Amino acid sequence: QVQLVESGGGLVQAGGSLRLVCVASGGTIGSYVMGWFRQPPGKEREFVASISWGGGTTAYGDSVKGRFTISRENAKSTVFLQMNSLTTEDTAVYYCAALKYTTSRSMADVRSWGQGTQVTVSS
Known about the structure:
Helix content: under 10%
Number of strands: 11
Mean pLDDT: 95
Low-confidence stretches: none
């Protein structure tokens, strides 16, 4: 089973940008649909974005559509989440995930989780 490690989180002011990085080890992510979820303080974990194994199909949660971009470099077993125009509502722990299906948005469809990286957006 592939292991996932996220990085790139931190503290940023509202309106700013961050890029999260997820690196896989113990296997290649080339055949996996990959995604990002997040868990805001005191709330349930929610779907953020996903990308097909070839990168040709992406999907986004409604709250991040138009602001976040998911991408991948299979040769480096790496997935990215570019986050722009951040708001305080984006404050959360962000988790990288290997997914079962291109249409997956549910935690039930997650094959592997990363440990999470904290993103805090200040006003």
